[in-house]
Amino acid sequence: MKTPTSADALRVARALLGLSQREAAAAAEMTQKALSAAESGKNSLLETNLQLIRFYEGRGIEFLGEARIGREIAGAGARFRGPPGPGSDLAETSEFHSMPYGVSFLAARSLLGEEQAYVAAKSGLPLKTIRALEHGATWSAPTAQLRAFYEAAGVRFTGWGDVETGRYYRVGVRWAAQKSQDVSGEAVANGDVVDS
């Protein structure tokens, strides 16, 4: 039996794929109202949650988190499936989704469940900069500032980069581990974490 995931992780999965609620609902063969309920965590059916998990997993998404009976999922999030880490066979990496940048700020905002205007106000960056960074702009100072904002809010970025190809794999976000939770991870040079 599959375990359902959190509403936060469902929003992240959709953001990583760059789908609107309408597009995701149509592709997953459900109503937009059902998808919206699943992403809000209110009045959502278990069947809908599991249907969305199957849909996103079929498109290369991997859900993250530790489930315990009677508790919320700890460290919930999502990322693209990918090779285990740096040093992976380059032939192996070609079958996985890769990105030209190592963070998805849209996925981070989706994890928080906030609007761009809120992130702009709280991070101190202009709204147009938030929009540009969410669409892949890679300006050093604003990128560092926005990443610091999300990390302070409890967002943990995942993924690793391949120096030879300039591509990033296993890009995603999850809630940072609680102090009592043990999440295995190996730090890599760019500060991202490679999860096992």
Features:
196 residues; alpha+beta; 434 Repressor (Amino-terminal Domain); four-stranded antiparallel sheet; two-stranded antiparallel ribbon; 6 strands; 41% helix; Helix-turn-helix domain-containing protein; Lambda_DNA-bd_dom_sf
Question: What would you note in describing this structure?
Answer:
InterPro entries: Cro/C1-type_HTH, Lambda_DNA-bd_dom_sf. This is Helix-turn-helix domain-containing protein. It comes from Mycoplana ramosa (Mycoplana bullata). It holds the Pfam family HTH_3. With 196 residues, the chain is an alpha+beta fold. It has a single domain, classed as lambda repressor-like DNA-binding domains (434 Repressor (Amino-terminal Domain)). The protein contains nine helices and six strands, in the order ααααββαααααββββ. It has a four-stranded antiparallel beta sheet. A hairpin with a 4-residue loop joins β3 and β4. α1 packs antiparallel against α6 and α7 packs across α8. The longest helix has 13 residues.
Q: Within the CATH hierarchy, at the fold level, what is the topology?
A: 434 Repressor (Amino-terminal Domain)
Ends apart, CA distance between termini:
22 Å
Strand order of the largest sheet: 1-2-4-3
Number of H- or I-type helical stretches: 9
**Mean pLDDT across all amino acids:** 86
What's the story with the biggest beta sheet?
Answer: 4 strands, antiparallel
CA radius of gyration is: 16 Å
Poorly predicted segments: 179-196
Q: What would you call the quaternary organization?
A: single chain
CA-based shape: globular
Structural class, from secondary structure content?
alpha+beta
CATH class: Mainly Alpha
What's the total count of β strands?
6
